[in-house]
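Training component of the fellowship. As part of building independent skills, the fellow (R.M.) carried out the full modelling exercise for a liganded target. The chosen ligand was 7TS. The inputs are recorded below so that the supervisory panel can assess the work.
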Amino acid sequence: MKIDFKTLRADFPLLKQTNRGKPLVYLDNSATNQKPRCVIDAISHYYTHDNANIHRGVYELSERATREYEKTRVTIKSFINAKHAHEIVFVRGATEGINLVAQSYGRTHFKVLDEIMISTMEHHSNIVPWQMLADQVGANLRIIPITDDGEIDMDAYQKLFTERTKMVAIAHASNALGTVNPIKEMIRIAHTHDVPVLVDGAQAFPHMPVDVQDLDCDFYVFSSHKAYGPTGIGVLYGKEKLLESMPPYQGGGDMIESVTFAKTTYNKVPFRFEAGTPDIAGVIGFGVALAYLKNIGMDNIAAHEQELLNYATQKLSAIPELKIIGVAKNKVGVISFVLKDVHPHDIGTVLDAHGIAIRAGHHCAMPVMERFQLPATVRASFGLYNNTADIDALVTGLQEVQRIFK
Ligand code: 7TS
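Fellow's submitted model of the complex:
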């Protein structure tokens, strides 16, 4: 089916507004993206008609809320081709998913001098939880280096394995460079050493089809708000066998089977990991976002964003004194760049005055900045509603930046 991406833009009410009096050009989709009307309406509908706490009411309303909430679990299972719906754990976002695995799986299975492998290009969310765990159990981090193009150094990766390696935690796609990592191959290699792999899919899941059984990843995390769904909700996928081996992450309601002061027993997977009242409206809204994406087709979205990436790479490369940081062969629609003699924050300010929303900074990936010896970059990141006119506006804005700072 041929999708007309131009008409899809009308599904996103926020994009109709202006920024500093100019039509909004939203190019910060890696930070979060905008929501289609159907998602906004679903949340409003939930609070208008279906709001009740889940998994406990005996009345119709609560049964309906529970049914809608659990329906999203099944939607996600199909969306990423998990084997079982109970392998889908609802969390607050990619960050909480990684913390959950580090604290529950890591604290149970890791000991002094064990090693956790991560890469130079990780978001802080896939660094700090492992550092905290390493401090708690006396383990060490091993860092996979990246090349000047911003790709994983695969030779170095293979050499980093020792008999102490207990986990590889790797981004599917980098938020600061756009690099798509060869995770299927990395997982295959890790498994030859009997090492499980957690994939941080925050920047990949919204931009390409993901099949967790094909990848054979052990854990996969992502956030709803980067995939056209609401904030405050995300997913931890874990293989049944691994989730079954893990103790609860937090204690509270819904995660127990029975409680006495002498002994408490825990609920089964995945409820064992969902203590307290969850973001029910968020889960339902995310289910609607996924139905919206499925209708467009993740293949179509990937192809559209690759066209934008190619167009933008060509246009930005033609700007004198502009350098793109991260030129991996396989990228998502993310372009990080610097302009000679102009600080990224100044670029951001001038672009903002022209209605253009980009991110300037270290993108919560300070080790990437250190690797390329930069304090910061400017980052433009694309979503399904962007088009070449947005990129033309960015180019015009950058020419204005150069005019001002000459
Ligand atoms: N992992 C990656 C690769 C990310 O890019 C981000 C957020 C996270 C994890 C954390 O996601 P959260 O939803 O739990 O916060 N990245 C960005 C970004 O690039 N700009 O703002 C947030």
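The panel noted the following from the submitted structure. The first helix runs from residue 5 to 8. The mean pLDDT is 97.
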